TrEMBL record:
Pfam families: Exo_endo_phos. PANTHER family: CALCOFLUOR WHITE HYPERSENSITIVE PROTEIN PRECURSOR, PGAP2-INTERACTING PROTEIN. This is Metal-dependent hydrolase. InterPro entries: Endo/exonu/phosph_ase_sf, Endo/exonuclease/phosphatase, GPI-anchor_lipid_remodeler. Keywords: Hydrolase. GO terms for molecular function: hydrolase activity. It comes from Echinicola vietnamensis (strain DSM 17526 / LMG 23754 / KMM 6221). One of its GO terms (biological process) is GPI anchor biosynthetic process. GO terms for cellular component: membrane. Residues 21-245 form the Endonuclease/exonuclease/phosphatase domain. It comes from the Bacteria.
């Protein structure tokens, strides 16, 4: 896997670093394939050295995935021993949704249903936000994972709902996921106006995440807030066809709170 990306800064001598991945894994099926390969996704995560992983479109006990708990298998294979699954919808006798993998113990895990409105002639799925707290070298953080709706009308409802949940948390926040939105569109502008920062500041082709073959746009992000609590050391997008999206990795230095 060849990464595309750039570095923002270098860590302080005594800085605490945290590597965060976000990856829409399409039930662990490779690009233009319907046969899941959990080992491939697990290998990518292991080789990345990520401490926190946000997964979207991850299956649990569905027919298409062989009736397995994909998140539990990936946790076992990667050694990221703390995990949290969130059901978005029932599917093929099981469910599909979101997952968080962590090197650190998780606490205060919550699943929040996001608002949705039916639109004539369009399929509108059910979407969730997952939140949990971790402590990294005595520094508490809230981590959150989501997958926003395809339609801008629904995303306009979901962004303020997400912000309302995260604003109530006492700790600095890292939010990852598939936002189904380009960086210069109204959805991401709404996040940025609320004080969220993106780990990718250039928003050029080095940040493209879809399709995994010849990517041409960015739909996946790692956001953080407040700015003062983090220093972005690097942002990378790994080149692999293990899914239809590409995994992105943001490396942070955690700045001590005054």
């Amino acid at each position: 896997m060849l990464p595309l990306g750039w570095s923002w800064d270098q860590p302080d001598d005594n800085g605490t670093t945290l590597k965060v991945m976000s990856y829409n894994v399409k039930y662990c099926a490779p690009y233009k394939s319907s046969s899941p390969n959990v080992d491939s996704i697990a290998n990518i995560i292991s080789h990345s050295g990520a401490d926190i992983v946000f997964l979207q479109e991850i299956d649990r006990n569905t027919t298409r995935s062989g009736k397995v708990n994909q998140l539990a298998l990936i946790s076992e294979k990667t050694g990221l021993g703390y995990y949290f699954y969130g059901k978005a919808i029932s599917y093929q006798g099981g469910e599909t949704g979101l997952g968080i993998l962590s090197r650190f113990p998780l606490s205060h895990q919550e699943i929040h249903q996001l608002p949705r409105v039916e639109l004539e002639g369009k399929y509108v799925s059910y979407r969730i936000l997952m939140t949990a707290d971790i402590t990294v070298h005595k520094q508490p953080l809230t981590i959150a994972n989501t997958h926003l709706e395809l339609t801008v009308e629904n995303r306009e409802l979901q962004v303020p709902a997400i912000d309302s949940v995260l604003t109530e948390r006492a700790h600095p926040v890292i939010l990852g996921g598939d936002f189904n939105a380009k960086p210069d569109g109204p959805t991401m502008t709404s996040f940025f106006e609320r004080g969220y920062m993106s780990s990718c500041q250039e928003h050029d082709r080095s940040c493209f995440t879809i399709p995994s073959r010849n990517p041409n746009r960015t739909l996946d992000y790692v956001l953080f807030r407040p700015k003062e609590s983090f220093r972005v050391l690097s942002h990378e997008v790994l080149q692999t066809e293990a899914s239809d999206h590409l995994p992105l990795i943001a490396t942070f230095e955690l700045k001590s709170r005054p």
